[in-house]
């Protein structure tokens, strides 16, 4: 009887010791995932605000690298003039940012 209770205590000790290092590892992974999710949410919010603030006459660059000037703003799209007499209709989500002339978008 004494042996059985000792075996039970040893099994309980192994179970408790098993989770320590793994628990810390799991918590670090969860914390990293939460941090990445909040960063992505913040970036998406900033991009939506930038897209909502764009107006007629502004130079923009699309996610695909097309540079143009906004000629009309519609509910979900922009009319983007990319060359004289050449207008493209692009979704608002396709706009990467304001164009500064160096090829890089600006928020």
Break the fold down into its secondary structure elements and pairings.
Blueprint: H1 2-53, E1 59-62, E2 67-73, E3 77-83, E4 86-91, E5 95-99, E6 105-106
Antiparallel strand pairs: 1-2, 1-5, 2-3, 3-4, 5-6
* Radius of gyration from the alpha-carbon trace, in angstroms: 28 Å
Q: Report strand order across the widest sheet.
A: 4-3-2-1-5-6
Total domains: 2
The count of strands amounts to: 6
- Percentage of helical residues? 40-55%
Task: Walk me through what this model shows.
- By secondary structure, this protein is of the alpha+beta class.
- It contains one helix and six strands.
- A six-stranded antiparallel beta sheet has the order 4-3-2-1-5-6.
- A hairpin with a 4-residue loop joins strand 1 (59-62) and strand 2 (67-73).
- The protein is rod-shaped, with a radius of gyration of 28 Å.
- It starts with a helix and ends with a strand.
- The mean pLDDT is 83.
List key phrases describing it.
alpha+beta, SH3 type barrels, 6 strands, single chain, 49% helix, 6-stranded antiparallel β-sheet, rod-shaped
Quick overview:
The protein has 107 residues and is of the alpha+beta class. It has 1 helix and 6 strands, in the order αββββββ.
């Amino acid at each position: 009887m004494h042996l059985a209770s000792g075996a039970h205590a040893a099994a309980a000790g192994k179970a408790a010791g098993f989770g320590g290092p793994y628990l810390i590892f799991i918590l670090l992974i969860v914390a990293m995932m939460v941090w990445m999710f909040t960063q992505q949410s913040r970036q998406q919010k900033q991009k939506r605000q930038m897209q909502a603030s764009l107006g007629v006459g502004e130079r923009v660059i699309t996610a695909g690298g097309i540079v143009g000037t906004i000629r009309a703003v519609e509910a979900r799209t922009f009319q983007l003039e990319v060359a004289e007499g050449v207008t493209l209709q692009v979704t608002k989500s396709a706009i990467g940012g304001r164009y500064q002339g160096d090829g890089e978008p600006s928020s």
